[in-house]
Design a protein that fits this description.
The chain is mainly β. Helices cover 14% and strands 43% of the residues. The chain has a six-stranded antiparallel beta barrel.
Amino acid sequence: MFTGIVQDMGRIVALEPRAGDVRVRVAVDRLPLDAVRTGDSIAVSGVCLTVVEHDARGFAADVSNETLSLTTLGDLAPGSHVNLEPALRAGDPLGGHLVSGHVDGVGRVVSLAQDARSWRIRFETPPDLARYVARKGSIAIDGVSLTVNEVEGREFGINIIPHTWQVTTIGGYAPGRRVNLEIDPIARYVERLLAAGAAA
């Protein structure tokens, strides 16, 4: 599990084909890797990946064709920046909301507009995810825990404060950019409970 509080913005160093899938190598800036072990999880732009190699400067993880095709990791190239968050450990503060690192779908940036020192961004969801996005609810976008400001059909808006703009990949967004979306898991549990109640 993760919290959606990004701890570093890493950089893709290499994408190495490996028997049909890819090993991705990520350089870190300030993320401490001294406590990381092979087999640990790190969220890379919202996608939970397993560390297979690491040193003080970065780590490597294998990415399956399934993950490449269903997330934005397939869009990456050497030099691309990614949001990084190590897995939540017992006793760590929960600063955002519970995030699994399992991407529900790929959305799209519709528009950006500056609002004082912040930015307002509108996104479009895939049709099957729109019903899970609620005003003032939580959503993870490229692994960043955010609060939904408003919802209109398949589009929703969020507000980005200067700190988040500076320390995550959101500062590089432009209209048309594809983004990883993970809905609040509570929404899925509520839907499941309601469906079970209706069937009873």
